[in-house]
Amino acid sequence: MERFYQWMSAVSDPSGSHEALVVCYNDSELSVQHVFTDIEVALKAQRHLPDCVYILGTSDQLSVFRSGWADDQDRLANLLKRGEKNARVCVHEYVFLEWNGASFNPHVLGGKELVYRHDPSALLRDGLRTLIEKNNVIHAAPSAHSFKHPSGTLNNVFIQTRELASDEAEVCVVGYAIALEYGARLRQAGKVYIDTMGIYAFAKNALARLDSKAEVMSFHSYERLKTIYPPEGEYFCVVSASTSGGMAKQMGEQGFTEECVATLIDRTADGRYGGVLVALDDVDYPLPVKAEEGCTLIEIIGENFSAKSKPPKSITISLKHDPKRLAKFHKYFGMGGIDGFNKSSKPRKLLTLNTDLLLADAAFRTWLAAEIDWSVSMATNLIVYADDDGSKKLGEVAHEILSEKWGATKPIQCVPYSELDQVEFKTVSGVLVATVVARDGGILREISRDLRAYMDATVPRRFLAPIGIPQSARAWTLLKTFLMKNPTPREYGFSNWLCLPIGDDGKENAWSRLTKVTSAGQVDDVGFTPAVSDEVRHQALDEAAELMEEHKHSFLPKHNGNALALSDGFLFFDPSSNVGKDCQNVPQSTVFFTIAAVLQFAREHENHELRLQPTGYESVVLSPECFLRFNDNVLQASFLRACLPSELDYSASPELSKLMKELIAKVFARWERTYGDAALEFAAALATGTLKLTQEDARALLEEAIENRKDKASSLLGLLLLSQRALFPASEG
Length: 733
Hints:
Layout lengths: L3 E10 L2 E10 L6 H13 L7 E6 L1 H10 L6 H8 L1 E2 L2 E2 L3 E7 L4 E5 L11 H15 L3 E3 L4 E4 L5 E2 L1 E3 L8 H21 L2 E4 L5 H10 L5 E4 L3 H4 L9 E8 L3 H8 L7 E6 L8 E5 L16 E6 L2 E2 L7 E3 L10 H8 L10 E2 L2 E2 L6 H5 L1 H14 L6 E4 L3 H18 L6 E4 L14 E4 L2 E2 L3 H13 L6 E4 L2 E2 L4 H12 L8 E3 L2 E2 L10 H14 L10 H17 L37 H16 L16 E3 L2 H5 L3 H10 L11 H16 L9 H10 L6 H15 L5 H13 L6
Parallel strand pairs: 2-3, 3-6, 9-17, 12-13, 12-14, 14-15, 15-16, 19-30, 22-23, 22-24, 24-26, 25-27, 26-28, 27-29
Antiparallel strand pairs: 1-2, 4-5, 6-7, 8-11, 9-10, 17-18, 20-21
């Protein structure tokens, strides 16, 4: 059980823009040890430090926090130090918001005066928005489908409010929000009507906050609602969710007063009967405009679909999934510009780009000069660059261009981010922030946050990020919005030359999963099939572990130890390009980067029939045909490593599972031949659980493959044994 739920809340007000980390506790008892551990964990989970921390909780929890902030607590100094960066305080205050039964009382921990004044209702609204996204509350109908709601209306959106919270701390977030917004009415109510038992926990939590003993009654359906009329005493009505406002309107027709009706989640609050706790258009949640006519209907019964699931849709990767900017990336980074896997340590990233050739390229220099001419404010006299070699060179190039443009009339500072504290900001009239490669923009966000602390919002600034390789197009859009929005009427500038989403490339990936599996096999040599002798098993596991260690920065090799590589021709390489002319010498990292970009483009494809993205109604997997179409060993390995586990989960489709089982069986059987060069990669995908078949197919596949290789130790046998133990632990001898 989680003790707390956390989220970030950004606020722009007359005092400027600032961010708060919000920590909402459940009702469990706390100790001083929890105080420090929880806040440290919450801070570590953020990509950058907030301006302040808000803790939502009870009076008893406040007492524990006050004890933690006492001078005699040794860990307090260490905690406060976590809120500093480069010897400068970033987290300016810690505020406990004590629930007093009707509202929140702010208490600045440490006895200081309150600096920031966040509205608790705004904080909770942001928390609800994060819960909506985290717990997949909003379901969009697939293309050519529409949801038929219990009211009879057709819509392409279905909201499952019962999914809003997955543990007690998340329930408390919802309970606090309801109690704060509708507390005056709920305290007076003797009866609370809800439309589904799915929100019973939310209603009871809110009533407990208000010390109310009101009876909670569920009427379940439209038909039942039509038989209910307002009671003689005080009451309140809560509708779980709506897309058209129909149920709240029906309550009005039944005689329930508008002040006593509230909907927890609705598309909009405009024109609705009663209140709306979260209006999706107010929190900028993207929704389709309207349902298509002549669609296949998905009937909703209560809070469920008429069919809980359907067989997964399989997507075959084709030229229609070719990202427009992929060829340009190949031009500048295809041959040696994408460093090998896991070469970066701080921060740890799967792929890193070598930008030296780009920074020296004439076309890029022309673009950069034009961008500075057209977009950088003449007031700019400070350049801040990220603390890496490529960004330093970019900052120096920008400094050179600006200095040539303005001559000696205006001295321009050029400093790394690590030396930002040394700048005399009273003299700064404009800022250019430079990072040569941005992912989801963690470093840009940090610099932006620090600049907000140092300078007035009216000082112009532009963020220069020539290369973007974010997780998704949506993440890139959010980054731009975060950097450009500010309290002034004008937006800050943002410049980008080339952007290509490539999916997640963090420290948790196929390489790290494989390391964990092989390490566990070495430590715990129990639970393996008795069909293999102890001597062969031990040697096979050792060979597998050694192979993993040797290939931490590459794919697993062929049977003869040679690296996986392309043959001539590849669908996503332009034959006239540098990579297309020399396919056999293209680095593995470039091939993987290409497949990762193609898969991410498929996940966000505008055409539903081509989109590799599951919905609440159907799951989506990569078609087994992809491994036949793209049958070069390095391409098969790239798909296995770049796909999300859900995209290779064939366990819900016996047909697709059997196709994959037959394909993999042939690969294992021909490991010593060309067709089976990627055998180790398929075995690794099974061992880590990245690729899943039905239980029947997986058992038959592994038993056959192990039987064929049980007499001689090999790295493939070691991985097969690890797969069998992971999938069928009951097979231990």
